[in-house]
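Sample A.
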Amino acid sequence: MIPHLETNVSAYPMNPNYSITTKDSVQVLKVHNLLNEYINKEILRAVQSKIDDGFSTFVVDLKDIQFMNSVGLNFLIMLRARTIDNGGHVAVVNASQKVMQLLEMTKLLPMFQLSGSVEEAVESISNDK
């Protein structure tokens, strides 16, 4: 069995707002703040850079996000649109109960693959390929 390859490939290394790592050719985006539109645009630029490099499947780890506003919802919608436009998709993991309620209230929940952990999402995505 080949060990999982995990590398840190952040477009902006050591950024306190997010990190992007690669796990089995899936981009794992761990975000720490989605309440600021400027920060979200910065994260989307990094995501676009990964898409331009040929990676269009992302797992978004929301472990550090306890609640979300319309700016965070817009970020998730934009991320999904960019990945879908490039033949990929987005899985969301570790969403808090408040985030899940918001996604459900706004009817956005069906737009995202939900998984309990990064590993579970990566495995599910890898099996779908």
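Sample B, a different protein:
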Amino acid sequence: TPYMDATSSWGFRSRWRRMLVGAAGMLVELFVAAIATFIWANTGPGTPHNLAYNMMFVASVSTLLFNGNPLLRYDGYYMLSDLLEIPNLYQRAALQLRYWAERYLFGIRRAENPAHSRREATWLSVYGVASYIYRVIVFGGILLFVADRFLIFGILMAVACAISWVLVPIGRLIYYLATSPQLERQRNRAIVVSAGIALGLLGWLELIPFPAHFRAPGLLEAQNKVVEVNDAPGTVVAVLATPGSRVKAGQPLVRLQNRELDLQLEAARARRAEVQALIRESLEDNAVNLAPLQKQLASASDQIQRLERDEAAQVVKARQAGIWVAPEVKHYVGRWLPRGADLGLVLDPSSFYFTATVAESDVSPLFGREFHNENVRLRGQAGELLTVTGLKIIPAGQTNLPSAALGWRGGGEVPVSLSDPTGRRTMEPFFEIRAAIQPRPDVALLHGRSGKIRFDLPAEPLLHQWIRRLRQVLQRRYQL
């Protein structure tokens, strides 16, 4: 394994040179990632393409998240230490936090401050708290990643983390309170303060109710809307109404053309004329053949009526008055459309409702309760609140989103199946909630505009909320 001892870089007087030495490995990795990016972008599917992608990801994203992160003890940590000119940053940060506790909580006047200035004390304190929080977040993410693939290993890792992060620190604190010579004159105070903080924190989490709420994504939909489709197949030859304009009921929107339909109609009319001639001849010569000919005439007439309806349907007309919403219809000109193709919407812009998608794990507190203070914030105008009324929960789990815009592939936040070409099939069931929107003159209500609705839940202690969230995660991800 290539290795270089860079310990002598501490001899540089300039901190910028020391930081450059610390960043050398990451700079090389980013250079390799750049080369891999060009290879990946200029190769087709295959082994070189996949290898280049993996190399690009490992040498860039993982390098910046781990090696370049100063909160972990890798290259970024030593670069930050050089930048602040504070050696042994991690150890001294732990000693600084311990000093604050001994000096101001336990009252030990002779406690030794590891910082040489207020600036150092500030940086050490901030780093000590931030690094601990970040390590918990990182290892929590790794724990979920492992448990998603190997549940047994994830459980073992969770037990190990609980021991190292909870039981071991508690044991060390008890041992410190019982045996530390620094607490010889302040031992009782240290024990009382520690117990008081623990009981106070537990009471704060267990007894004091806190507001509870959650938000769910959704979108605006017009209450009165009609999907305009072509009732007969044909080639689009003209868009007769400008998308976005107001149209009247019965106004032509799109014209299609079907040469084959015209030929079929001419042939059917000719066949009907032929049968009518045979009927007239039969009336004069032989009435025995009249009944079969009348059946043929009725069949030909039915065929002509059907073909004439299809011919009339070559002009798609608005089924109601409203706004003609068809952003893609201009691309249909010259394209053959089968019967029932979606051309656009005609909607009434005077009234809208908000359709929200609530995860199965979040919907249970909403059943059987009254809604009072729910509101909606729309994307692009998140500072404006819209009041909703008449909330209704559709009591059945669903797996198809009302719009692909709510899913990952459409820029939303709902996880969807990557194998679904429509981008609407969700990875987990959800419940649909609808609510009427109270319009405001300063907020633009547009069909399909996305936003979020906030649901206020009964206040309860934080510990209860966290336990419920943990149970929901375990049930959703691992069915435990």
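Observation for Sample B: Residues 214-223+351-478 form a domain with the Elongation Factor Tu (Ef-tu); domain 3 fold (CATH 2.40.30.170).
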